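Ticket #4471: complex job returned nothing on first submit. Input attached below:
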Amino acid sequence: MKSAAKHPQNRRAYVNASLVAPAQALKGPGGILIEDGWILDVGPRVTRDSVGSGAAVTDCAGLTLIPGLIDMRVFTGEPGNEYRETLASASEAAAAGGVTTMIVMPNTQPVIDDAALVDFILRRARDTASVRVAPMAAITKGLAGELMTEIGLLGEAGAVAVTDGTRAVANANVFRRALTYARDCGMLVVQHVEEPTLSSGVMNGGETASRLGLSGNPAMSEVIMLERDLRLVEMTGARYHAAQISSRHSVDVIRAAKARGLPVTCGVSAHHLVLNEHDIGAYRTFFKLSPPLRTEEDRRALADAVAEGVIDVIVSGHDPQSADTKRLPFAEAAYGAVGLETMLSAALSLHHNQSGPLARLVESMSSKPAEILGLETGRLAPGAPADFALVDLNLSWTVEEDRLRSRAKNSPFEHRTLEGRAVETVVAGERVYAYAGR
Amino acid sequence: MTSETRSPLLKGQHLLAIDGISSLEALRLLDLAESYVGVSRQADKRQPVLQGRTQVNLFFEASTRTQSSFEIAGKRLGADVMNMAVANSAVSKGETLLDTAMTINAMQPDFLVVRHASSGAVELLAQKVSCAVINAGDGQHEHPTQALLDALTIRRHTQGFEGLVVAICGDVMHSRVARSNIHLLGKLGVHVRVVAPSTLLPSGIANFGVEVHRRMETGLKGADVVMMLRLQLERMTGAFVPSIREYYRFYGLNAEKLAYAKRGALVMHPGPMNRGIEIDSDVADGAQSVIREQVEMGVAVRMAVLDALSRNLPAGGSP
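Support reply: We reran it on our side without changes. The output follows.
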C-alpha cells in the first residue's frame, strides 16, 4: 500500500461539490477537508466559510466528488511482460480513470504464488506507482490448478485474496481443499467461473458465433462452474467471490445463493455492461474477452443486477495486450481489453440511460470492493485515507489510442465518445491526475 | 471482350463472403462464368483480360484443387500467377499473417487469393492491403467461390433457382462450404435444408433460414439437389460422431438413401471425397453425380470473379 502520510501537507479543502458516497449516506452538496493524506471532515458542513483561511480551497462547482475507485480486477505485465504494461503505466491509466486502488492479478511471469513475490509487487508499487496497489495471490502454485499455495503466508505478506486469475480451479477436490484452508486463514477466494472443458471457444456460443464460423463458449460453461462452486462453498463455509459473471443465468444463480445466505459476492466488467457479442462485428479482436461478451439480453440482465445489488462490484478487467497478440485472426488473438481509464465512464452510461442509480454505481466501485476485501479506503469519512475523485458527469470525451495512458492500446471503446469522466484524482491527499481538456 | 462487357459487376474491391454480395451481383457473376465455360472448352483458352496483372495465391492451408483452379483461371485470363508456398516460408518462422500480407502487398500484386485456417483471417488481411483479395476459404466461415460454382452447376441442370429444394448433408458445423451455400442459395430463392446429427450442426442454425433435419429419409425427401459435405476423419471417431460405420449407416449417401430424393436429383460434393464414408462410389460416379462438373465450373467461376474484380482495379494498377 502506498504510504499514506509520507509527505505531510497543508490542510486543503474541496468545497461546493456534489458528494456521492453511499456507504456514508452522503448525497448532495458539500465538501471535504483533508490533511496529511487523511480526511479530517466531509459533508454538507464543509464549505468555503467553514474551513476559513487555514486551508487551501478548491471550488468544485458542477463536479461530483466520489470516493476513489477500487478496481478489483487489473492485469499488468509486471513482472515478466513489462512491454505491455508496468505497475507504473497501469497506475497512470488508473489515475486517469478515477481509480485510486488497483487490485492486481497473479497472472504474471513469474506467477505471484509466493510471499516474496507479493512483497515484490508491493515494493515496486510503492516505488513506481501513483495509485495504491494491492495484489491477489495465486490459489494454486504456478496457476496449475493442482497444489495449493501458502495461503496463510501470502495473506501475511499482503495479498488481499487468492485467485488463479484468468484460470478456473477446475479440479473440484483441489478447490474444495483450497476453500477449506482459505476459510481458516480468513482469506477470500476469487474464482474465474468457467468450466474449461466446455470453454474451448473464442466467443459467446450461439448463432452469432456460428455465422462468423467461430467456436463458441456456451453461457452454461459459466453457470455450471458457478453452481459447482456454490455447493463447495456451502460445504466449506469459505468466502467466495466470482470474479466476473457474464450471463443472465449466472445472475439468477447468485441471487438464489445470496437468498440462501451463502457468503458469496460477484463482479462484472464494465465492458460487459455496455457491449454485447454483436460489437465483435468483422472479427474485431479488441472485443475478444474472457468471459466473452454475450447477448444483449445478457447485457441488460447484468446491468439490472448491478442496480439491484445482486452483482456487487464493477471491475475494469483491465488486460493490456499489444499488437503482436491482438493483430491476429480472431481465434488466434489474445483475450482481454484495457479498461482502467474507461471503467467509470462506461459504468456512468448506466446512470445516463437511467438503468443504474449513480449511488449504486459508485458503491460498486468503491465501498463495496473495500468491504469485500477489508480495505480502509473506498469511503469518505473522517479518519479515512484521502482517496477521492472529482467527476464531471456530463463531460463528453472520445477514446483515442494516442491519448490513453495505458502502455497497451487495446480498448474496445477506441474512437467512441463516452459521457462523464474523472477530471481530478487524489490519492492520500496528493493529486495524481488532472484532466487536461479535450 | 467488348468494352460493354467490361462494365462494373461487383460493388466491392474484394470478394470476402457471400454474405457481403447481393443476389443481383451473384447472378451477374454466374452469367459471366457461363461465358467462360465455353471459353475453357475451346482449343485456345486464352482471354487476355488480365494481361499484365499479377495474381498471388497465398494458401496458409494446403489445398491442391482450389489452388490449381485459381491458378488455371488466372492463367487463362492472361495474368501472371504465383503460388506462395506459405508452409515453407517466413510464416513458419514466426512472421505474423499481417507481416506476410504487407510484404506481399509491397510487391504490388493486383490479386491476392487467400486461404487460411482461421475464420476472419482473410478479412483481416484485406484491411491491410491495397489489391483485390479473394477469399479461397477462411476457417469455418466462408468459401464464396465454392458456393458460386455450386450454384452455377445447379443452374445448368434446372429451370432457375426459385422453389428448388437443396439438401446440404453432413458436417455443417465445421463447413465453410455449407455456410456460403446457405447464404447464396437462400438469396437466390432456393429452399435449403440441412441434414446432420445434432453434434454436427452449429448452434442457432435454425435462424439461418434453413429447414433442419436429423434424418436423411426426411431431409432428402423430394430434394432436387443432394449436396454432401466432407467429414474429417478426426471428427468421426468419437469426437462428434461415434464411428465411421455408424456415420455411414445413418448419413452416408448410397443409392438407397438417394432414392428418398426427387427422381434424377443432382448429387454434389465439394471434394475431396471420403468414398465409402459420406458417399458411396456408385453414387459419386453415378448418372446423377455432377461432382466432376463442379470442378469444371470452379475454373469458370474463378475466371469470372477475377474478371469482375479487375474491373474495379485502378487503371494504373494498385497504388
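Chain B touches chain A through 24 residues (CB under 8 Å). Closing as resolved unless it happens again.
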